[in-house]
Design brief:
The complex is a heterotrimer of chains A (about 260), B (about 350) and C (about 325). Chain A is α/β, with parallel strands linked by helices. Chain A has helices at about 5-10, 55-60, 85-90, 105-115, 135-145, 160-170, 190-200, 215-220, 240-245, 245-255; strands spanning about 15-25, 30-40, 45, 70-75, 75-80, 90-95, 180, 210, 225-230, 235-240. Helices cover about 35% and strands about 25% of the residues of chain A. The longest helix of chain A is centred in the middle third of the chain and has 13 residues, at about 160-170. Chain C has one domain: ABC transporter involved in vitamin B12 uptake, BtuC, CATH 1.10.3470. Chain C contains 14 helices and 2 strands. In chain C, helix 5 packs antiparallel against helix 6 and helix 6 (about 100-120) packs across helix 11 (about 235-260). Chain C is globular and about 70 Å long. The chains are: A alpha/beta (about 260), B mainly alpha (about 350), C mainly alpha (about 325). At the B-C interface, helix 1, helix 7, helix 12 and helix 14 of B face helix 7, helix 12 and helix 14 of C.
């Protein structure tokens, strides 16, 4: 039953399917004609130099802004015109490259807001009871990113690395099916990077993700497929080994020895 | 949210930690006990003028300004429509209940016309909110100001419903439990109870899922959308909630004046609410009440004060405007901000090892 | 313009149709049947001309407001006070010197100076803090309103129209036919026509300066990208001061105009502030042509509303604003931010 044709059909089993996605800023195309698809549970890295359009691509997928042209399907459903929160409620999550956390609230509050966002009672005027199962879930998530000790700390007082970890906790709230990680390792120490790789590799296997990462070591260790972007277009697709050994890619991106910049 | 954002700078929520919690009675600081006690026994201390005119008015204006504080402080939306919402509730009570204009008033019983008035005002506030949230920041102020003035001109032009220039007189609270609620002492307790209830409601809701999410929307609307929140819906719902508080204040205001006319919802009144909330401080729900007390005291006693200095007593507006300017210039977070900074300095003097004593 | 026609063929069609019907209504003689339905043509024409003139006045006030906002992101809610102040000062000047024309340069300079003080002492201190600017200017307008009430009292003033502008002028537009069957042309106060022409001249001049001169290029560059302007070595503060002074002076002049064909009294400051707000909300923040379109729309709707639906004239204005907000939150000619 799982022949190639049915995979490519409209209601394919793909977690994410992009067709000809283009985003114009005025006359400038930040991304143009991006087409690729990701299977459920697949982990893919998106590589490319600064300005290649990676974050713009994420913003189009999550609905932070709308694509100028093309279509986006999430788990078989056309979400091209959906506002961001509708896409999130369908199991999509993302982290941000620049920290967009709620600095005036505690770690627990931040995670609680994230959990509440994808559950019922978003508009509830009643404070949660101690027995609220959501609170237990909040604890689990904080534990998962090793922040239990800082549970009641204001987010603005956390270290940079801890804030990045909290970002991941927020993305894991609810029942995510597909996550977009925007440079989660940027600015982390080697130890924090190792922790990050553990967290990513420890995710349940049904959760797929796309990760934007400059650090090739991290990118290739947490992904099974790679999409190279250049000047807003898809430049190459393949397995990590294929991409690493591709002469064109090496010339463009790896060859200049800049692969370790953050 | 970036530090350069003016709204987030002004409205940075006060630092808060969910410490291991003692029982709720233990958590109430001594100062609150004292203030509460004084407020309760006030009728023994103060004369009728103070009870009815000063405190009654303070609580009423404080509630209307509190609804603005809720929107501005927790939602980052400075709405100038709150006085109009209050006025709408006041008009609704006059129209649906009884007034001196017996041709226009419908004379519904109190248990019907009061809730319906609040609902009408809430719907009005929600519709305005739905329009205002389509834009952000400074545009919210302009649009709500424009709608507020449209409402004012409409009430003045329309005679079929709002009775134009003259409005409604003889709008009094219903005689419940055999009490005349417009007598100073009952009115004092009525307004006090409403003010305390709305104050507690705001505090409670600020930590509810809705309130937390609203603060999230204030600090990072994009982020909230990426967490599954419908940002627009949350903002509009905040208008609804604030409208209910403003509506209660508006009904009390009509009862206090026993009349309502377009002047009640005029632009000066609309601006006054902003002045009260800003002077008191938009960060905490107690701010609007502090601001209201200052405003009412100035309003009541500045003519005497000014004549004392050999000026015309009519110049109280200049005085209030100047005071407002000074506050905005030197303490964007109002009198409460001044108080916080003063306390911080005192504590630092006492304890040289602590450098950031506000936390 | 062309882009708009290509992108929105249906909307351009509707707009052209409405404009054509409107122009036909103004120019063509009305048949008795039409007068039966729509009322006298003279009434309609008077409302239209009143609306356009009022729009011209609104434009004079709002142009300064929108220019200041567009360039500096300064929200000056004391703009209405500048209008009223200009009116009162103009009244004093024309009363004392007997010269209506002299009032214009004097008021322009005086109110422009007030604008310079505002920009230099208030807005420069809180650049980028829109909310504080709003509140401070609200405070200033409260104080100014009270001080003006102090010096000029609560009565209303009208600035005398000079002799050479008083009386009606005949326009080549058919108002109707008299009993003898002769065509009657529309007669309209000359001073209003002068105001209309002046507003158009000022508007066109502003547009020309903004679009064709070096200064205008600087200002427009500043609107688009302030950092670029600052980095180009131009003394941006001087440009700001000049624009603020000009916008304020324009509001002052508008005060004389308003005081001539309407009247000056306490409360007019808020009225014109609100008119400017509505005009720029409808037209689009920071756009001069937007302010012109918005001003004419609001002026027309107010006057036509007064004639055909007296109790609901405010509602018409308000509905226009709501419709714009609902379908184009950035205003008719505003740019998406």
């Amino acid at each position: 039953m799982t022949d190639v044709a049915s995979l490519n059909s409209v209601a394919s089993g793909n977690a994410l399917e992009l067709r000809g996605v283009t985003k114009m800023f005025g006359a400038l195309a930040a991304i143009s004609d991006v087409t690729f698809s990701v299977r459920p549970g697949e982990r893919r890295a998106v590589l490319g130099s600064n300005g290649a359009g990676k974050t713009t691509l994420f913003n189009c997928i999550t609905g932070d802004f709308f694509a100028t042209a093309g279509s986006i399907r999430l788990f078989g459903e056309d979400v091209t015109t959906f506002p961001a929160h509708e896409r999130i409620r369908r199991g999509l999550r993302r982290t941000y490259q620049i920290s967009l956390l709620f600095g005036g609230l505690t770690v627990a509050d931040n995670v609680y807001i994230a959990c509440r966002g994808v559950s019922r009672g978003r508009f509830s005027l009643l404070r949660p009871r101690r027995s609220d199962p959501l609170l237990a879930r909040v604890g689990e998530l904080i534990e998962a990113v090793n922040l239990t000790e800082w549970r009641n700390t204001l987010v603005s007082e956390l270290s940079y690395g801890q804030q990045r970890q909290l970002e991941i906790a927020l993305a894991l709230a609810g029942a995510p099916r597909f996550i977009l990680f925007d440079e989660p390792a940027a600015g982390l120490s080697p130890t924090e990077r190792r922790e990050l790789i553990e967290i990513l590799n420890g995710l349940p296997s049904h959760i797929g993700y796309i990760i934007i990462e400059h650090d090739m070591d991290v990118a290739l260790r947490v992904s099974e497929s790679v999409t190279m972007m250049h000047n807003g277009r898809v430049f190459k697709e393949g397995t990590p080994t294929e991409i690493e050994n591709d002469p064109e890619v090496q010339e463009l991106y790896l060859g200049d020895g800049s692969h370790s910049h953050g | 949210m970036s530090a350069s954002d003016p709204l987030s700078q002004i409205f940075q929520s006060s630092a808060r930690r969910a410490a291991p919690e003692p029982t709720w009675v233990e958590r109430i600081p001594l100062a609150v006990w004292i203030v509460g006690f004084v407020l309760l026994i006030m009728p023994l201390i103060a004369n009728n003028f103070w009870l009815f005119q000063v405190f009654g008015w303070t609580f009423i204006l404080g509630m209307i300004a509190l609804s603005l504080m809720f929107l501005a402080g927790y939602g980052g939306m400075v709405s100038l429509i709150q006085m109009s919402v209050a006025g709408m509730a006041g008009y609704a009570v006059a129209i649906l209940g009884t007034s001196g204009m017996s041709d226009l008033s419908l004379g519904w019983p109190w248990w019907l016309h009061i809730p319906v008035a609040i609902i009408i005002a809430a719907i009005f506030g929600t519709i305005v909110g739905a329009l205002a949230v389509r834009t952000e920041g400074i545009y919210t102020i302009m649009i709500t100001l424009a709608i507020a003035s449209a409402f004012f001109y409409f009430t003045r032009q329309n005679y079929e419903i709002f009775n134009g220039y003259s409005g409604f007189n003889l709008v009094v609270p219903p005689r419940l439990f055999g009490v005349d609620w417009r007598q100073p002492v009952p009115f004092y307790y009525l307004t006090l109870a409403c003010a305390v209830l709305s104050y507690l409601a705001v505090i409670y809701v600020s930590r509810s899922p809705f309130g937390l999410a609203l603060q999230g929307v204030r600090d990072g609307p994009r982020r909230m959308a990426a967490l599954g929140y419908n940002v627009t819906a949350h903002r509009i719902a905040a208008y609804t909630f604030a409208s209910v508080i403003a509506a209660v204040g508006g009904i009390l205001l009509v009862w206090q004046n026993s009349q309502i006319s377009p002047g009640t919802v005029g632009i000066p009144a609309v601006i006054d609410i902003l002045v009260i909330a800003v002077v008191g401080g938009l960060r905490r729900p107690i701010g609007p009440f502090v601001g209201a007390l200052i405003y009412v005291l100035l309003r009541t006693f500045s003519p005497d004060l000014l004549t004392g200095f050999g000026l015309s007593g009519e110049r109280f507006k200049t005085l209030i405007g100047m005071g407002f300017l000074l506050i905005v210039f030197f303490s964007p977070d109002g009198v409460l901000g001044l108080w916080d900074r003063w306390r911080a300095r005192q504590q630092r003097k006492r304890d040289p090892l602590r450098d950031r004593s506000t936390r | 313009m062309q882009e708009f026609f290509q992108k929105r063929p249906i909307w351009s069609g509707i707009i052209i149709l409405v404009l054509a019907v409107f122009i036909w209504l103004v120019l063509a003689p009305w048949s008795p049947e039409m007068e039966a339905v729509l009322g006298r043509k003279r009434v309609f024409l008077n409302a239209v001309f009143g609306g356009v003139t009022l729009g011209a006045l609104y434009f004079l006030v709002a142009a300064g407001f929108t220019l200041i906002f567009g360039l500096m992101r300064n929200v000056n809610l004391a703009h209405g006070s500048l209008y009223l102040l200009g009116g009162y000062l103009g009244f004093e000047v024309s009363e004392r010197t007997g010269s209506w024309l002299l009032a214009f340069p004097v008021v322009f300079v005086l109110v422009g100076l007030v604008g310079i003080v505002l920009q230099n002492q208030v807005f420069r201190r809180m650049e980028g803090e829109e909310l504080r600017q709003t509140m401070v200017t609200i405070g200033i307008s409260v104080v100014l309103a009270d001080l003006m009430l102090w010096s000029w009292g609560g009565q209303s003033y009208t600035i005398m129209t000079p002799d050479w502008l008083s009386g009606p002028a005949e326009l080549p537009i058919v108002a109707g036919t008299n009993r003898d069957g002769d065509t009657v042309y529309l007669r309209y106060p000359a001073v209003r026509i002068a105001i209309l022409i002046a507003a158009i001249v000022i508007g066109v001049l502003m547009w020309l300066i903004l679009n064709k001169s070096r200064l205008g290029m600087l200002i427009r560059a500043g609107v688009d990208d302030r950092d670029m302007l600052a980095a180009s070595g131009i003394r941006i503060q001087w440009v700001f001061l000049a624009v603020f002074a000009f916008g304020a002076g324009l509001a002052g002049i508008a005060g004389i105009v308003g005081g001539t064909f309407q009247s000056l009294s306490p409360g007019e400051d808020t009225r014109f502030l609100l008119a400017s707000l509505v005009v720029v909300i409808v037209g689009g923040m920071g756009s001069i042509p937007g302010a012109a379109i918005g001003a004419v729309l609001i002026g027309l709707s107010e006057q036509l509303g007064l004639v055909y639906a007296p109790t609901y004239s405010v509602v018409v204005t308000f509905l226009i604003m709501v419709a714009v907000l609902a379908f184009r939150p950035q205003g008719l000619l505003g740019r998406t931010r």
